[in-house]
Write a structure and sequence with these properties.
Helix content is 63%, strand content 5%. The protein contains 39 helices and eight strands. The longest helix is centred in the middle third of the chain and has 22 residues, at 347-368. The strands form two sheets. It has a five-stranded parallel beta sheet, sandwiched between helices. A three-stranded antiparallel beta sheet has the order 6-8-7. The model is unreliable at 685-694 (pLDDT under 50). The chain has 757 residues and is mainly α. The chain folds into seven domains: 18-155, Rossmann fold; 164-251; 268-345, Arc Repressor Mutant, subunit A, CATH 1.10.10; 346-436; 438-495, no CATH class; 539-681, no CATH class; 698-753, Orthogonal Bundle (Arc Repressor Mutant, subunit A). The relative contact order is 0.04.
Length: 757
């Protein structure tokens, strides 16, 4: 028997969403009201229709679509529902009573589609019917929840988007729902459309830029018959002008991307509209404190921001995401944000407030990067990179003094994260404009000097550090002086002028002791220890280094790891190998906490020297190769004395290996992730075959190679003389260990790393 329904036939294929549908079907066993929320164009209606179709056999008395999108008068709501489900109205009693009586014992589903403009009335109707009709279930789509007791609020996610790096493998791109939808819809107007390798990158970028929003992707795909993928991608700089090609039979608000957002914006109050527009200032997200500081102002008081922001979240125009245990973070989809900025009047004034806020915030963050709270502040700085870049861009163009302050504050972060090229670019732009005060140049000059030193540009580093020190001495600027002298000491050490280096570091220590600056004292003692050790005075070096180590308790893991590396190096030179090994392991652990590739590379090389002392040549080469791979990503160089020591050790180890063993050890080391290299160095994976990503057994490696060779599970089972069920289990284990989803991904991974079998 066919369940009575009025669900429309699908005119286009339904793409993806299998996990979401499965979850929604499970939820319908637990709840009688599910509201699919999300911004315009997210695919709520299409998903709800497919869900309704999937559950037809569970509701024999009917599955009824009530399309509310065109209903402008809330007084007609009950009449519309009665008409759809075939309940006869009786003028002697309210319509709601007739509906409740007619459906009292019916096992049926209402799909209330497009509720956001009638949300209060729909909520009242739904609540009454659910109480009166115990077998009734309701699926609602709305840009905000109904707020009814027992409601399950289910945010409709965007379609999965591709990784741009997968563009070389179209079979991997096609696993993205966004890509599959684009290709499917493109073929409606251009049947010969194929995902060609040469165009795959452009298509991946289109779907990523559109953030997996189904409406936007369908509109973009519709242009493929008249525009190349590259032209569509370029046109997305002005997405609202580009994406205007919806079908004539589509709802008006779904015919263009702008109309989809217009509909949501039009349902906001005037204060909600004002906050919405101002929140468009933020790039990459924001927290409540930033919103209150930047977006408050007539007609919005600071105390109004939180409740207004909550309403924008409920209306699916802002997304709330957990960030820290005690803090929520908010963001807008780029499409929504672009629209919000169009609505913002006097944008220059608001850009200034945004830049001012992040100038003050980054100064505070920079101070925290030497504290024991370093890790959380590094994470917060990473989260705010888009906002900081936006503030830098505006400040460089409009407020040069603010640009210098902001770029100077970012120096510690850029150095710790080895973002050397980006930091130098911003600092050069900030220093290239006139300023009102010479002292504002000193810190940016020191920062550029330090980053230039890290990249091997010693001439620029020397020039900038000398100028910064001149300014600092003339104006009695403590921080600028000690940081500038430290860079000059590093440069002197690199050119092996150790007497000058010692003099610079000693002056820093003396000035820092007068100020009681433990962080700078520890840093200068560490640098002095390195000079003493290079000169062969390791006993004196160890005294300095251990003094520095004793002062690091109040510092962050970044500084603690650097000092431990120094103490380990000196102990190794003194023959204290067990102590050195323990300290290197601690340095690796601490550096991993703050994701510092440079100090990890140093410590890996230190571990390699220890291993080489035990004549384990293969392990030595693996560790050296892993360290080299990390260094190549940062562009940072070793000091000359350390480079000589490392190169000599590596040469001895290589000489003891056969050509085949050497090649295998180098490949293994270069293929390791940072985490794998640390585990290998500390002995956690001494017998593992990780091949650069994760531990696979010999049998799993055989299976992966056969998959790369194009064999099915059955064919692999026959070749290996094991059961197909066993191969199935191996494939599942490989997926879990490598974090891959499909056989196609396993094939690509194995082909690139293992070869075929």
């Amino acid at each position: 028997m066919t369940t009575p329904n009025n669900l429309p036939a699908e005119l286009t294929s339904f793409v993806g969403r299998e996990p979401q549908l499965a979850e929604l079907r499970r939820l319908m066993h637990r709840s009688r009201l599910i509201t699919l929320t999300g911004p315009g164009g997210a695919g709520k209606s299409r998903l709800a229709l497919r869900l309704s179709s999937d559950v037809l056999d569970r509701y024999p008395d009917g599955v009824w679509l009530v399309d509310l999108s065109a209903l402008a008068d809330q007084r007609l709501l009950e009449h519309t529902v009665a008409s759809v489900c075939g309940v006869k109205e009786d003028s002697r009693r309210p319509v709601i009573e007739a509906i409740a009586e007619g459906l009292a014992n019916s096992r049926c589903v209402f799909l209330l589609d497009g509720c956001e403009h009638l949300v209060d009335s729909v909520a009242e109707l739904t609540s009454r019917l659910l109480r009166s009709c115990p077998k009734l279930a309701v699926i609602a789509t709305s840009r905000e929840p109904l707020g009814v007791e027992g409601e399950v609020i289910w945010r409709t996610p965007s379609l999965t988007t591709p990784k741009v790096e997968d563009a070389a493998h179209p079979e991997l791109l096609m696993e993205s729902e966004a890509i599959r939808l684009f290709v499917d819809r493109a073929r409606l107007s251009r049947p010969e459309f194929e995902l060609e390798p040469g165009r795959a990158t452009a298509l991946a970028q289109i779907c990523t830029r559109l953030e997996g929003i189904p409406l936007a992707i369908e509109l973009a795909a519709g242009l493929s018959s008249v525009m190349s993928l590259e032209e569509i991608l370029d046109g997305l700089q002005h997405r609202f002008q580009l994406l205007t090609g919806g079908g004539r039979r589509s709802l008006p608000r779904h015919q263009t991307l702008r109309q989809a957002v217009d509909w949501s914006y039009g349902l906001l109050s005037s204060t909600e509209q004002a906050l919405f527009a101002r929140l468009g200032l933020f790039a990459g997200g924001f927290d409540l404190a930033a919103a209150e500081a930047v977006a408050s102002g007539a007609p919005i008081e600071v105390a109004d921001v939180r409740p207004l922001l909550s309403r924008l979240v409920h209306k699916s125009l802002v997304v709330a995401e957990p960030s820290h245990p005690l803090t929520a973070r908010y963001r807008m989809l780029d499409t929504i944000r672009e629209y919000a900025l169009e609505k913002l009047e006097h944008i220059g004034e608001w850009r200034r407030r945004h830049a001012d806020y992040f100038s003050v915030w980054t100064a505070k963050a920079a101070n925290m990067l030497t504290s024991v709270d370093q890790g959380p502040w590094l994470q917060r700085l990473e989260e705010e990179q888009a906002n900081i870049r936006l503030a830098l861009e505006w400040s460089v163009s409009v407020e040069s003094d603010d640009a210098l302050r902001l770029a100077g504050s970012m120096g510690v972060f850029w150095s710790m994260r080895r973002n050397l090229a980006e930091g130098i670019e911003w600092l050069t732009r900030a220093l290239g404009v006139e300023t009102t005060a010479a002292e504002l140049r000193a810190i940016p000059l020191v920062v550029r000097a330090r980053l230039s030193h890290g990249r091997g540009d010693y001439a620029t580093a020397e020039r900038d550090a000398q100028e910064a020190v001149r300014i600092a001495r003339a104006l009695d600027l403590y921080t600028e002086l000690t940081r500038g002298l430290t860079v000059l000491g590093m440069l002197a050490s690199h050119r092996e002028d150790l007497d000058s280096a010692h003099r610079y570091f000693a002056e820093v220590e003396s000035v820092a002791r007068r100020r009681g600056d433990n962080e700078r004292i520890a840093s200068s003692l560490n640098n002095l220890a390195m000079i003493e050790s290079t000169l062969g005075r390791n006993d004196a070096a160890l005294v300095h280094a251990e003094q520095a180590l004793a002062m690091t308790d109040v510092l962050g893991d970044y500084q603690k790891a650097i000092v431990r590396d120094t103490v380990a190096r000196i102990n190794h030179r003194l023959g204290n190998r067990d102590t050195a090994r323990r300290l290197y392991a601690e340095a690796l652990s601490m550096s991993a906490e703050v994701k510092d590739p440079m100090n990890i590379a140093d410590a890996l090389e230190g571990m390699a020297l220890l291993v080489n002392s035990a004549n384990d040549s293969e392990r030595t080469v693996v560790l050296m190769s892993a360290a080299e791979a990390l260094r190549s990503k940062t562009g940072a160089e070793r000091t000359p004395d350390w480079s000589n020591e490392v190169n000599e050790c590596t040469s001895r180890a290589k000489a003891r290996l056969s050509a085949a063993a050497l090649e295998a050890a180098q490949r293994k080391g270069k293929g390791m992730s940072m985490e794998d290299a640390i585990r290998f160095a500390t002995g956690e994976t001494s017998d593992d075959r990780r091949d650069g990503r994760t531990r696979l057994t010999d049998r799993e490696i055989e299976v992966a190679r056969l998959i790369a060779g194009g064999l099915t599970n059955g064919e692999a089972a026959a070749k290996l003389r094991i059961s197909e069920r066993t191969v199935d289990a191996h494939v599942e284990h490989i997926r879990n260990k490598l974090g891959l989803r499909t056989r196609a991904q396993i094939a690509v991974w194995a082909h690139e790393r293992l070869g075929t079998g």
